[in-house]
């Protein structure tokens, strides 16, 4: 029974600190290439929620949100015809920023959507370099002491 209580407490603490409890974290999966290709309605619904969150936070204007939503709908509509090979061959080893920059390069009409995608990608890794620097600094302090 003690082990069971321990496991329950461990899971509750993990869920409490998990970023998945935030709606924004769940909605950024809308830029997943396989979701765009195989589940268009879910992807568009998540993008709508994401744009609403970004608008409510003041990160984008309502015009930018409407433009990005329209461009995302166009991307989803052309996913099975124009972008099928690119979306189908995407692997998790690739970087999403490089992947989407290849799709959006040279297309000035995709600027509102590209702005949102960049914002989302920065959001998910915003402090990664700073945090790794802290880890290196901590290791150096231990050796120097």
What is the topology?
Blueprint: H1 2-17, H2 23-27, H3 33-38, H4 40-56, H5 62-77, H6 84-88, H7 96-104, H8 111-124, H9 128-144
Helix pairs in contact: 4-5, 5-8, 7-8
Protein architecture, described:
The structure is a single chain. This protein has 145 residues and is mainly α. It has one domain. The protein is built from nine helices and no strands. The protein has helices at residues 2-17, 23-27, 33-38, 40-56, 62-77, 84-88, 96-104, 111-124, 128-144. α4 packs antiparallel against α5, α5 crosses α8 and α7 packs antiparallel against α8. The relative contact order is 0.10.
Number of strands: 0
Main sheet makeup: none
Quaternary status: single chain
Overall pLDDT metric:
81
Bulk shape: globular
The proportion of residues forming helix, as a percent range, comes to over 70%
Give the ordered list of helices and strands.
HHHHHHHHH
Structural class by sheet pairing and helices:
mainly alpha
The portion of residues forming beta strands comes to under 5%
Distance between the termini: 43 Å
Number of helices: 9
Number of domains: 1
Radius of gyration: 19 Å
List segments where confidence is low: pLDDT < 50 over at least 5 consecutive residues. none
């Amino acid at each position: 029974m003690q082990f069971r209580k321990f496991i329950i407490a461990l899971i509750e603490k993990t869920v409490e600190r998990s970023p998945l409890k935030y709606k924004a974290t769940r909605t950024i999966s809308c830029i997943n290439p396989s979701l765009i290709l195989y589940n268009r309605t879910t992807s568009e619904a998540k993008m709508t929620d994401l744009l609403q969150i970004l608008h409510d936070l003041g990160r984008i204007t309502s015009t930018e949100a409407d433009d990005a939503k329209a461009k995302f709908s166009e991307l989803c509509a052309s996913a099975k015809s124009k972008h099928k090979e690119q979306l189908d061959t995407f692997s998790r080893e690739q970087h999403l920023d490089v992947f989407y920059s290849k799709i959006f390069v040279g297309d000035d009409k995709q600027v509102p959507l590209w702005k949102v995608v960049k914002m989302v990608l920065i959001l998910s890794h915003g402090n990664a370099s700073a945090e790794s620097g802290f880890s290196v600094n901590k290791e150096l302090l231990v050796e120097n002491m």
